[in-house]
Amino acid sequence: MGLQNEVAAVVETARMAGADSAVVEIKKAAGGVPKSLPKTVSAFANSSGGLIILGLDEAAGFEPVGADFTALADALATACADSVEPAVRAAIEIVTVDGVPVAAAHIPPTGIEQRPCFVKTQGLHNGSYIREHDGDRHLTTYEIHLMVTGRGRPREDAALVPDATPADLDQAEAERLVERFRQRRGPTVAKLDTSEILRMLGIVPRGSDGQSVTLAGLLALGVYPQEFFPQLNVTFVSYPTIDGRPMRDGTRFLENVALDGPVPQMVSGLVDAVTRSMTRGARITGMGREDIWEYPLEAIRELVVNAVMHRDYHPLAQGTQVRVEMYPDRLVFINPGGLFGAASTRELLQGTVSSSRNMILARLLEDVEMPFSDRTVCENRGSGIRTVVAELSRAGMQPPGFRCATGMFFAELHNLFGERSDSGNRLEAPNRPLPVAEDPTAIIRQALANGPKATAELVELTGLSRPGVARYLKALEASGEVVPTTRRQSRNVKWALTNTSQKGQS
Questions:
Q1: Domain 153-431 classified CATH 2.60.40.1180?
Q2: Which part of the chain is CATH 3.30.565.60?
Q3: What is the pLDDT of residues 277-326, one digit of tens each?
Q4: Is residue 99 a contact partner of residue 79, using CB atoms and an 8 Å limit?
Q5: Which of 112, 100, 107 minimizes the C-alpha distance to 84?
């Protein structure tokens, strides 16, 4: 009676809630098996599995209806074995509820290498479902694509880019890559000419006339890849509120930038953009005060590299950027494609499994250097997430949160300030904007109430970014509430409240 206890607990919960759930489907089935049964099997199989119970009436508080439980069990077996592809090996039992027999089936998740499970009579694209809340939803074309490509090795990064030629590559960077490859791969490779190495690295397609380049080559070494793929870039937005809603004065963003160029430039630009928007805090120790960043810079770099390197580059996803969003309490990295391969988010966090969606691009980034640096973009040894976890731990922060939803992968860092480090040392931060819809100009007025302040001082006192402080000062000056104490262009310029503003505050 393996399912008896599980069914009893599920029915008790359903009666209290008045509904079934994302992992439970309960049907009356008094007049026979519902036609929707195969799609529910598909939905559970494409999700994390679930439990189907036939013979209970939801409208009557999930009371048993005394249906032909033997026929219902046979119908469940048929739906699992013959109605869906691939077949689902479900555990089917006759159990009792309030002493009355009902049919139950535990639907296991279909393996990644076999998804999507679909209803045969409807076909792959019309008959693939997924479970959401307490209902079954059609998989989108893109979600089906992700499951199908998850069965094997994607080749999108090896695709030839129409109209692009080796002339669209940064020739100096290409030469540096080739030379680095010769040095690191031994004497056999050192004898090869540049064109052979470019083919070996997957930058120039093998078998081509030498006048074409791959997507991986363009992304790693292109002068401006967005000429061919305008949306294959990274965007960064800093929101003033924790829910992303505008502030009361209509301010929607504190920072909003699109970062173009090849992968090394996008990574470097993103780190710079986040740094500009971060505040500095202090770690109070027995020896005094240590200035620290809101988020570890190396963790930021590793997460954006991970997003760009492992995102989905299929044509269906080429209209979606990698997005990085900063809120007062968290920093979120979002990339299209979900989690590739057999790794779970837990295994990813533990660093026990590594799987690369774009193997050619990942290999190239081992040898492509970051701007103004002798370090390469990545190690490609599955060490990136371990580095993130280690950097966060060193800073006294909790591990990153990972999740997948609707073909997207999310990595989230929670703000350091207000937490405690492992050693118990207290972290202090400058005053930050209130989480929801606080007026930033009011914060600046309050900071200036005790006397004139330089822009850098206002950044420190308010917790706003420097561009944000400058923008709000400009608005306050235009309304006649603040004035510069010296020439605006002076390095020593400070800002003071006008008499009118001071009267308004009193």
A1: no
A2: 153-431
A3: 887 665 555 555 666 788 999 999 999 999 999 999 999 999 999 999 99
A4: no
A5: 107
